Amino acid sequence: MEEVEINKSEIIQHFPKRQANSYKGDYGNVVLIGGNQSMGGAIQMAAMACVNSGAGLTTVFTDPVNRPAIHSVLPEVMVSDWRRQDSLKKAIEKADVIGIGPGFGRDHSRFNQIMLLIKQVIADKILVIDADAISILSQKDQGLDQLSQAKYLVLTPHYGEWERLSHGEISYHDNEGIQSFVNQYQLNLVLKGAPSRLYFADHSNFYQLAIGNPGMATGGMGDTLTGMVCGFMGQYTDHEAALKTATFLHSYIADCIYQDQYIVRPSQIADLLPRVMKEMEAERE
Fold first, then answer.
1. Which of the four, 129, 209, 215, 223, has the lowest number of CB atoms within 10 Å?
2. Which residues bind AMP (predicted)?
């Protein structure tokens, strides 16, 4: 397989421009599901990145203990109790993009309940799966087969999650094997690492970032990426371009921060995102 580098000029070329008469419905209805009692910060970071990437509407379904914390820093999002199946079902039906996993925990029963709701409408949904949701999914027989009917399916594993997902049968460095896996399940993969790589279903190439830095090796980095992926997916009609843009900007902004700081906090990436997006919009013009 041939390696193709994702560069800034390509990202700018596909960068969307907001129309003067647009409204929030034009930029995606995103539902994010995650954040148990111990890991509310994960879904909060994902939501912050989703909002700051330009999603038109963001709704978080989480453990109710997280509601005050999220509302205190993100008044722009709606926050609901993930135990309320009726509310979750209605939100999923209306959503354009569903992201599940950040801070979810290993509650198989809750995951199964939520996935039953998602599968009822999966053909019309963009589905982004990360973190604990990948780990749970990797333990379920033919779980991925059932999700291949999604309008667009994205998985964002790091090294350990890939090991579980592939059951240790496909090396993290085996690009041919990874592409075969992607083709088999008709999904699209962001394999997070140093550097990160992207694989798209039925492609003869894989894509790699030439950016990123050691300061990104900190908790919450993947949660922020998930929020960005969901946010861009809701705005782009070209899903491949959306995935490339989210992944590139995540590392690009981190590199800007790393020039002056020893570590990069994920929330800093989300904070800088609107400004960097405005700069890229100007460069396209």
1. 215
2. 192-196, 222
In terms of Cβ atoms closer than 10 Å to its own Cβ (0-12, 13-18, 19+), residue 160 is: exposed
158 assigned binding-site residue: yes
Say whether 192 counts as a known binding-site residue: yes
Number of domains in the chain: 1
196 in a known ligand binding site: yes
- Ligand-binding site membership of 193 (annotated): yes
Residue-wise pLDDT for 233-280, tens only, equals: 999 999 999 999 999 999 999 999 999 999 999 999 999 999 999 999
Q: Is residue 22 part of a domain?
A: no
Q: Is the pLDDT of residue 142 over 60?
A: no
Output the domain CATH number for residue 223: 3.40.1190.20
55 is in an annotated binding site: no
- pLDDT confidence band for 141 (50 / 70 / 90): low
Whole-model pTM: value is 0.97
In a domain, 11, yes or no: no
- The verdict on whether residue 220 carries a ligand-binding annotation is no
How would you classify the pairing of strands 97-100 and 126-129? parallel
Q: Report the mean per-residue pLDDT for the chain.
A: 96
- Residue of 73, 74, 76, 49 lying closest to 273 (CA atoms): 49
Owning domain of residue 200: 27-284
In this structure, is residue 12 part of a structural domain?
no
